[in-house]
Specification:
The protein has about 230 residues and is mainly α. The chain has one domain (about 10-220): Ferritin, core subunit, four-helix bundle (Ferritin, Up-down Bundle), CATH 1.20.1260. The protein is built from 12 helices and no strands. It has helices at about 10-35, 40-70, 75, 80-85, 90-110, 120-130, 140-145, 155-170, 175-185, 190-200, 205-210, 215-220. It is globular, with a radius of gyration of 18 Å.
Length: about 230
């Protein structure tokens, strides 16, 4: 397998894929850094900083790969999208935001670890996947505890909807010609719709614990995999 593909079609698709990697990873890093101010204890802040120290060096690999495939500066390429990302405004929102973003990142990465076209992309995805820690429930229990009171659930549902939509958008646009072609060429093992469906299906324990739901596509403003969508 080549480090990067030599044909222009594959290189063009790879550039888009690497932009997606950079967008998700920088989004998560920025949110984690921003959210330190909401963490109540020093040990919680230190744990968050340690996670940043673990993952930020891996972003450099994404930056280097993008330059290698003649993409230029990937940070500049995704800057406009990054500037549209909101930040959590409370510890509650940070808890659900990090939970969802980490899970979405894991499902995205799993589709690239067996990439047959670029050994560099496969290696980067495996390295990143090794440090992406996901759980069935948010690590900070404050969000689940908040949802234990039924009167709090409408507000919690709003936070869930906001970050579900952002995570689904970050996974990519399902049904596009580039999506199908990436699978055909072996750049990715699954289509975006399948990745999104797996992401949503994996939220079962979280939804059961919180009493929340995955709303329909209209409520989220994004396209949902039909089999995974639930009506609110």
């Amino acid at each position: 397998m080549q480090r990067v593909p030599s044909d222009e079609e594959s290189r063009g698709l790879l550039r888009k894929i690497v932009e997606g990697h950079a967008y998700r990873q920088l989004m998560l890093a920025n949110i984690r850094g921003h959210g330190i101010k909401y963490l109540p204890e020093l040990d919680h802040k230190l744990a968050s900083v340690r996670r940043l120290v673990d993952v930020l060096p891996l972003v450099q690999g994404v930056i280097d790969l993008y330059a290698e495939i003649d993409g230029g500066d990937v940070v500049s390429a995704v800057r406009d999208r990054m500037e549209r990302i909101p930040y959590p405004t409370s510890r509650l929102e940070l808890a659900v935001c990090l939970f969802l973003c980490m899970r979405a990142e894991r499902h995205a990465l799993e589709a690239y670890v067996d990439c047959r076209v670029s050994s560099a992309l496969a290696e980067l995805s495996r390295a990143r996947l090794a440090v992406v820690v996901t759980d069935d429930l948010p690590r900070d229990p404050v969000f689940v505890e908040y949802c234990a009171e039924p009167a709090n659930r409408p507000h919690a549902q709003q936070m869930l909807n906001r970050w579900l939509a952002l995570c689904l958008v970050a996974l990519g646009r399902p049904g596009s010609p580039g999506d199908a072609r990436a699978v055909e060429l072996g750049l990715r093992t699954r289509r975006v719709s399948d990745i999104a469906a797996e992401f949503l299906a994996g939220l079962g324990p979280f939804l059961e614990a919180t009493g929340l739901v995955v709303p329909d596509a209209d409520a989220l403003g994004v396209e949902l995999p039909g089999a995974a969508a639930r009506k609110s």
